[in-house]
Write a structure and sequence with these properties.
Elements (H helix, E strand, L loop, with lengths): L3 E6 L11 E7 L17 E5 L13 H11 L4 E8 L5 H17 L4 E6 L2 H11 L7 E4 L6 H6 L5 E5 L5 H9 L5 E3 L6 H18 L4 H16 L7
Parallel strand pairs: 1-2, 2-3, 3-4, 4-5, 5-6, 6-7, 7-8
The structure holds zinc ion.
Zinc ion binds next to loops.
């Protein structure tokens, strides 16, 4: 029995989670999408709302209040996709918007799902500055930096690292240097068929790399996924 999980996709959570997946997390990227992400359709689907670093030009004057209020009203929502990207303009504005969202996630005790490209030095500085106002848990989506960052932040900031199938030796080495209890799998997909295919691929790759069978590997990653959503799962 496989327990495949998708820790990061962009599917609007208004269609049921496919049977093949045991859970998925759907990330909005800009304000105009937030409403559609508020009501996840089933108990395997979780959602995040936030401003992606590529979308900072689209914010309205009241965006931060709207984010806070929407999260406060919807205890099942997490914060994401947020972050910094050196290939997108205006790193100062990106940092300001990112910090505001981290603080909101911290205040409301929600995990934050992070996109970071070429800016981990800046993120580490921000994390240090925020210190006690950090979110309770972070998912580093498509982590692609130096593996030495992993040990610096994993326990300190309760970071989970989410990967798609590795394309080269460097990507394999990041996966191997991530503690098994902090590994997640992701599709970053916009439709369910692509998501399933990508999650099967990455889970098989991780199983091969770590000398496990795919069932064992998917179970460990499923347990890690449960830790992430434990902050927003309704108590029954
Ligand atoms: Zn994404």
């Amino acid at each position: 029995m496989m327990n495949y999980t998708d820790a990061h996709c962009h599917i609007i959570p208004n269609t049921p989670c496919p049977d093949t997946l045991a859970g998925r997390i759907c990330d909005a990227t800009n304000q105009s999408e937030w409403e559609k992400f508020c009501n996840a359709i089933d108990d395997k689907t979780f959602a995040c709302i936030g401003i992606h670093p590529w979308q900072i030009e689209t914010i309205t004057a009241n965006w931060a209040n709207e984010l806070y209020d929407t999260l406060a009203k919807n205890p099942c929502l997490m914060v994401g996709e947020i972050g910094m990207d050196k290939y997108h303009a205006d790193m100062d504005a990106q940092a300001e918007i990112f910090i505001t969202q981290l603080k909101i996630a911290s205040e409301l005790n929600r995990p934050a799902h992070i996109h970071c490209v070429g800016a981990w030095d800046k993120l580490l500085h921000i994390f240090k500055e925020l210190s006690k106002s950090m979110p309770p848990l972070i998912v580093a989506h498509a982590f692609n930096d130096d593996p030495c960052v992993i040990s610096q932040i994993a326990d300190k900031y309760n970071v989970y690292f989410s990967y798609s199938a590795p394309q080269d030796a460097k990507a394999e080495s990041r996966i191997l240097q991530t503690p098994p209890a902090r590994l997640l799998t992701e599709s970053d997909a916009y439709d369910s068929d692509t998501a399933i295919q990508k999650i099967e691929d990455v889970t098989n790759s991780i199983a091969t790399l770590t000398d496990q069978n795919t069932a064992e590997c998917s179970e460990q990653i499923y347990q890690n996924f449960q830790k992430v959503i434990s902050y927003v799962r309704p108590i029954d």
